[in-house]
Amino acid sequence: MRRAVEFLFTRLLRSRLGIAVVIAVVVLGIVGAARLVAGPGDDRPGLIGGTPGPISVTDPEAGDDGLTVTTEPSPRTSPGAPEPAQVARSFTTAWLDHRDVTADEWHEGLRPLVTENLAEQLTGVDPATVPADRITGELLVVPQNDSLVEAVVPVDSGELRLGLVALEGRWRVDTVDWQRR
């Protein structure tokens, strides 16, 4: 009989139900021990021993006390270097100059205006695949921080979106995206 009880007990401990029962007993033991240590006192959750410590409460009428940045980021440019808008316009003009030029001439026109990473990505691109021919509106520059801006250039077939980064105070196009209207 004893052997049967031991077998049943070990089998129960190895099952999922047995493991769940053991975990429940452990949790109840921890909660019970904490209540014994806490003793009588305040029954509010989070208080042990019934003595409240300092509680920080925000006045709902006081408004948001978080950090608010009210100034727009201002792109930084080295003295004498072109501003991001000038670089974006020069790149767009060179990018749109895809007719009657060889691929090498087109790439060389873009090279001084782009990062090394973008220059590598443009290697092998056929200028005949450029989906636009002319700028149709005002260029918009949106600063993200002091060394990253996005330029949006309306062209005859959509929008050219350029990501410009400042490398040692000199702006270069790092990403090119075109969106059809």
Structure description:
With 181 residues, the chain is α+β, with helices and mostly antiparallel strands. The chain has helices at 2-14, 16-38, 84-96, 103-110, 116-122; strands at 140-145, 148-155, 158-167, 170-180. A four-stranded antiparallel β-sheet has the order 1-2-3-4. α1 (2-14) crosses α2. The chain is elongated, with a radius of gyration of 34 Å. The mean pLDDT is 83.
What are the main properties of this structure?
181 residues; alpha+beta; 4-stranded antiparallel beta sheet; 5 helices; 19% strand; elongated
Write the layout of secondary structure elements.
Blueprint: H1 2-14, H2 16-38, H3 84-96, H4 103-110, H5 116-122, E1 140-145, E2 148-155, E3 158-167, E4 170-180
